[in-house]
Amino acid sequence: MALNSINPTHTEVWKKLQKHHLEIKDITMKSLFAEDSNRADSFTIKWNDFYVDYSKNRITKDTRSLLLDLAKECELEDAINKYFSGEIINETEGRAVLHTALRAKESDSVLVDGVNVIPEVYAVKNKIKAFSNSVISGERKGYTGKAFTDIVNIGIGGSDLGPAMVTEALQYYKNHLNVHFVSNVDGDHVHESIKGLNPETTLFIIVSKSFTTQETLSNAQTIRNWFLSDQFSTVQEDVAKHFVAVSTNLPKIEEFGIASENVFPMWDWVGGRFSLWSAVGLSIALAVGYDNFDKLLEGAHQMDVHFKTTPFEENIPVQLSLLSIWYNNFYNAESEVIIPYTQYLSRFAAYLQQGIMESNGKSVDRTGNSVDYQTGTIIWGEPGTNSQHAFFQLIHQGTKIIPADFIGFTNSLHRDKDHHNKLMANFFAQTEALLNGKTALEVQNELEGKMDTEAIKKLLPYKVFEGNKPSTTILIDELTPESLGALIAMYEHQIFVQGVIWNIYSYDQWGVELGKQLATNILKDLTSENIENHDSSTCNLVKYFKKNQK
Ligand code: F6P
């Protein structure tokens, strides 16, 4: 059964939320903290090794209960049941949405068209395990009998961002294999990536759910040509030893010449941007070993159980997505920032950009009508403390309201307390500064005695921090494969909740198709004499490009 279609703005509670927003929008968080000494506790959820403090947000207990009513009126509970049980909730593509099945227990049963998919999931997991063990141990060898030293993941979008982000995030747990990612159809990317590689010891994983993606197929073709080029003593049969593929499109893989035993299947009920838990994560299993890959899945599974079974009041993904809706739809926030205080998560925001924006960047609701309210969160971010020295100025003193997620860890992996305390002092200080700001009186007191009254008067307005800037703090014990899995799953479920409430289809991505179609037409123009009909700007640009290309 499909998800119900409920326009959130037509619910009873929406009007109440609008009224409530008008009542509280000018109240400062600072005063809310002053009024309620238990505020931090009242707005904190502790779960496993997660400590989620959302008290530094522009909400009261009334806001929370109204937002929870919104979730109820939008029938979130029913939607969650449909999500986990394999209903066709991706209606525009006629598919279930079951990345959660990829991390389910072997004893679980998840039906798609009446068939339990868990045995297939475990068959592929076992294949990933056997394959990654044989490559890591050196038992599996290249065409000259040497063990592999390098792995190249060829994919784009969900077939690249997830594995690339996780491999980077779990660098601490890495083995001797060097893992590279080639994604862009920009030839400079692929040529730079292969120039230092030894084909004798390099394994290539072509990852494409559809196996029709131009970028991935072009890169795979270029790499195969390089591998079979005269500079190496390779022959056609060696391709089977060095190329493996992950896809749902088995005929296309065969056409490419990949041996059937080197194919890792996936399923159409796994969306590309949610696929790192499938064989798309093969590069992760190779980089950190299968056991760590499995722990990543286990962490995500724990979060699935939390999301599925915890009352909404204490449910982390539910509470955080309601906050996001609060800012998007009532405060008209234009974007949200995600700041992990660990260099290991340097690709996290880029990864979430696809997950969040490809999913909820939609303007037609589940009845086929255009929405007349905001959907889709714009996500950006970089690790702290680097981002403090880059864009934090705008968050502190700019004109926009930018809700921020601060993700930090109690323990650093290298156990360097000196560095870690400095890092985390910044982490806590930023959320405190965003909350409290700095008043004119505080600035005045700070400057007195350092300059004359006239100079203070001139400088003062620039040194005042308004404060009252919302942030949510997610403090986790340590960056482990389990906690990373749980963190990623937490955001995945937020995407789902927001899509349900916004009454949109979160699991298709038709919006990326038009550009692909037009690029195919323009490629013909670039490689032939004539130029087809385009607007005058595009025509001029194409002509200029063709004339000046060397
Ligand atoms: O950008 C569109 C998209 O379909 C993504 O959703 C997907 O992750 C990516 O392209 C790659 O697709 P594929 O895995 O089929 O090559």
Automatic annotation (TrEMBL):
Its main location: cytoplasm. Its EC number is 5.3.1.9. The keyword Lipid metabolism does not apply. One of its GO terms (molecular function) is glucose-6-phosphate isomerase activity. It catalyses: alpha-D-glucose 6-phosphate = beta-D-fructose 6-phosphate. GO terms for cellular component: cytosol. Transmembrane segments: none annotated. Pathway: Carbohydrate biosynthesis; gluconeogenesis; Carbohydrate degradation; glycolysis; D-glyceraldehyde 3-phosphate and glycerone phosphate from D-glucose: step 2/4. It is an enzyme of class 5 (isomerase). SUPFAM superfamilies: SIS domain (SSF53697). It is found in: Cytoplasm. One of its GO terms (biological process) is glucose 6-phosphate metabolic process. The active site is at E358 (proton donor), H389, K516. InterPro entries: G6P_Isomerase (IPR001672), G6P_Isomerase_C (IPR023096), Phosphoglucose_isomerase_CS (IPR018189), SIS_dom_sf (IPR046348), SIS_PGI_1 (IPR035476), SIS_PGI_2 (IPR035482). Keywords: Cytoplasm, Gluconeogenesis, Glycolysis, Isomerase. Catalyzes the reversible isomerization of glucose-6-phosphate to fructose-6-phosphate. Belongs to the GPI family. This is Glucose-6-phosphate isomerase. The gene is pgi.
